[in-house]
Design a protein that fits this description.
The structure holds two protein chains of two kinds. Chain A has helices spanning 38-49, 59-66, 125-128, 132-142, 157-166, 168-173, 201-207, 232-238, 254-274, 292-326, 405-411, 425-431, 434-443, 453-458, 467-477, and strands spanning 2-4, 11-16, 19-22, 32-35, 76-83, 90-97, 102-104, 115-124, 220-229, 244-251, 286-288, 335-341, 344-352, 355-364, 366-368, 387-390, 398-403, 414-416, 447-449, 480-493. The model of chain A is unreliable at 1-7 (pLDDT under 50). Chain A has 15 helices and 20 strands. Chain A is of the alpha+beta class. Chain A has a domain at 2-107. Chain B has a single domain (3-140), classed as Archease, Possible Chaperone, Chain: A, domain 1, CATH 3.55.10. Chain B is α+β, with helices and mostly antiparallel strands. In chain B, strands 1, 2, 6, 7 and 8 form a five-stranded antiparallel β-sheet that branches. A three-stranded antiparallel β-sheet of chain B has the order 3-5-4. Chain B contains two helices and eight strands; from the N terminus they run ββαβαβββββ. The chains are: A alpha+beta, B alpha+beta. Chains A and B meet through helix 7, helix 9, helix 12 and helix 14 of A and strand 2, helix 2, strand 6 and strand 8 of B.
Chain lengths: 494, 141
């Protein structure tokens, strides 16, 4: 069945109950494919008909625009948390042929390798309940957060270069973590081909004081408990059980990543003209992957990826120390479950028409979700698939999912990254006040620590889509599978 | 200052106007800074003069906004406003010199709102209408 938008050329065809397709027409090189249920699909179509104030491109049209980029393989994809971004939709995934394809700033975003890591403690929910307020205050003191925050790690320029090349291992050697953490970080906490000479001095200067800081906006450190386990085998492999206390950390490459994005937006704008790349929207400026500009940008993105891994690594250490101060456990008792990256483009091997092929996979607000057997997955998890860490909101559930074989075939092993926004920040601020949200969450037993009341209102739980619904779409589509549902106890925000 | 915010689900759309291109750029800078700080809590004790260039006014607008973010971050300042010193069109494009005013960031004193990561080409517009110059773009937050 097809659902057509009146007065618009946008059209969505139902492939299954949870997969909808924008058929290939006109300049499209591949179809668009969106993970959605009927209600979500119809909502996306309605939004695509309306010319938004300011002329911003609706999410479905962004999926369509990406489908027109040179060298795109198989489909322009969007995960179930799809909402409008810039260039790519948030939740957008685009895989490109290494010879004919392009690399795009909009497919990565400004917050390179914004991602989530989850730490597992040996504590039970009942151990933390009486210490919650104390723990929240300690974490708020020890983990720098908010606009303009600086960390305790101050690096010199040569050290920044080393951090950009070596990622988490560099920061662990500085005393922030344990060598075992590396195995449980995507890419071992370090991607290759990171060349600091392609990162501007300005970008490096902006990072001197920001290693180990959360930032603001939707970034957080949350203490959660396991409410429900769906997949006992996978939960057992991941080392999690009902009522266990976990710690989720969501942040990225901070200002270094922002500056890399800013610098290369200009470079790729010029490259788009130089190489005559047919882009439907200026926000999709890009360069051929194998051009000098494309290669420089990719190596700079890799630096940003390593920077973000080391940032989350440093914050993990600060959280471990804070827990040790308030509870009776030692820092080394807190193990890393996994660390996943959201805003990246990475060279990966995928099966395309029966042949393994190297592709550059952009995931913008989407997560890598490799299925069982892939060598990139830690040995202990390999039989069940990669853990996926899906953040909810301050007041709602988060999830641990796992990657599947079907996900490898259908969407280059990708997953949702969160609930996805339903209301704009302005709508949220008009609807709620920060103080109200804090009070309501406190009544539910959730403590929020934030330096910005305005940020709290913007991040109100109801400003986001229903995370249960988003996750169920991916689960029912068979590309991600539910392992456990988590509930927040306390949240430190920027 | 004549600026407004445009609905955008993920980020923030900025609409800035002025009787001249210079004034419209100044409005846009204030619109962006107002996303980051409660500007009434920011004093003017430091100023930084900087340059920027681009092939067309819309790209220059993004360039200037990003330069403000970069300087502010590198020096740990909170900026309040921008004054355009010089703006001219040459054979190679548009050249800009401006001064940003603010103070060293003080967590206790400067009320923070939301961090802006960068100005983007999304929804990027420059137009002249009824004697007004208008810029619009999305800033990533």
């Amino acid at each position: 069945m097809a659902v057509e938008a009146t007065g618009s050329r946008m059209e969505l065809r139902k492939v299954t109950d949870y997969v909808w397709e924008i058929p290939r027409t006109g300049d499209m090189l591949v179809p668009g494919r969106i993970y959605a249920d009927r209600e979500t699909a119809e909502g996306l179509l309605r939004d695509s008909e309306v010319k938004k104030a300011g002329g911003f491109t609706p999410a479905l049209r962004q999926v369509l625009n990406v489908a027109c980029l040179p060298g795109i393989v198989k489909a322009s994809l969007a995960m179930a948390d799809i909402h409008p971004g810039y260039g790519f939709a948030i939740g957008g995934v685009g895989a490109f042929d290494m010879e004919k394809g392009v690399i795009s700033v909009a497919g990565v975003g400004f917050d390179i390798n914004c991602g989530v890591r989850v730490l597992k403690t040996p504590l039970h929910r009942n151990d933390i309940e009486p210490l919650k307020e104390q723990l929240a205050n300690q974490l708020f003191r020890d983990v720098p957060a908010g606009v303009g925050s600086t960390g305790e790690i101050k690096l010199k320029e040569a050290e920044i270069d080393e951090l950009l090349i070596r990622g988490s291992s560099f920061i662990i050697e500085k005393g922030y973590g344990f060598p075992g953490d590396l195995e449980y970080t995507e890419e071992g906490g370090r991607v290759a081909n990171a060349r600091p000479e392609n990162v501007s001095r300005m970008a490096k200067e902006r990072q001197f004081k920001q290693v180990g800081t959360l930032g603001s906006g939707n970034h957080y450190l949350e203490v959660q408990w396991v409410e429900e386990v769906y997949d006992i085998d996978a939960a057992s492999a991941y080392g999690i059980k009902k009522d266990q206390i976990l710690v989720a950390i969501h942040c990225g490459s901070r200002a270094l990543g922002h500056q890399i994005g800013t610098d290369y937006l200009k470079t790729l704008e010029a490259a788009s003209r130089k190489y005559g790349i047919p882009i439907r929207d200026r926000e999709l400026v890009c360069a051929p992957i194998n051009s000098a500009e494309g290669e420089r940008y990719l190596s700079a993105v890799n630096c940003g990826i390593n920077c973000a891994f080391s940032n989350r690594q440093a914050i993990s250490h600060l959280a471990r120390i804070a827990f040790a101060r308030i509870t009776n456990i030692k820092p080394e008792d807190i193990k890393l479950l996994y660390d996943v990256a959201h805003n990246t483009c990475k060279v990966e091997g995928h099966d395309v028409d029966g042949k393994m092929k190297k592709l550059l996979v952009h995931r913008k607000g989407a997560t890598r979700a490799f299925g069982p057997g892939r060598p990139e997955i830690p040995h202990a998890y390999r039989s069940v698939g990669q853990p996926l860490l899906v953040g909810g909101t301050m007041g709602t559930a988060s999830y641990i999912l796992r990657g599947t074989e079907k996900g490898m075939k259908d969407c280059f092993g990708s997953a949702v990254h969160g609930a996805g926004r339903a209301l704009s920040r302005m709508q949220a601020k008009r609807q709620w006040r920060g103080e109200e949200i804090l009070r309501e969450l406190k009544e539910k037993g959730i403590i929020i620590k934030s330096r910005s009341k305005s940020d709290v209102a913007e991040e109100a739980p109801l400003a986001y889509k229903d995370v249960d619904k988003v996750v169920n779409i991916m689960h029912n589509a068979g590309v991600n599978q539910k392992v456990a549902r988590l509930r927040p106890l306390l949240c430190v925000k920027g | 200052m004549p600026y407004a915010y445009l609905e955008h689900i993920s980020d923030v759309g900025i609409h800035a106007e002025g009787e001249t291109v210079e004034k419209a750029i100044e409005s846009g800078a204030e619109a962006m800074l107002n996303v980051m700080f409660e500007l009434t809590t920011v004093k003017e004790t430091v100023d930084v003069t900087f340059g920027a260039s681009a092939g067309e006014p819309a790209l220059l607008f993004v360039e200037v906004l990003n330069e403000i973010l970069s300087i502010q971050d590198r020096h740990s300042f909170a900026f309040k406003r921008l004054e355009v010193r010089e703006l001219k069109k040459t054979g190679e494009g548009w050249l800009f010199i401006g001064t940003a005013f603010g103070e060293p960031f003080n967590e206790e004193k400067n009320e923070v709102k939301t961090e802006v990561k960068g100005a983007t080409y999304s929804g990027l517009i420059y137009r002249e209408e009824q004697g007004k110059h208008v810029f619009e773009c999305v800033v990533d937050v």
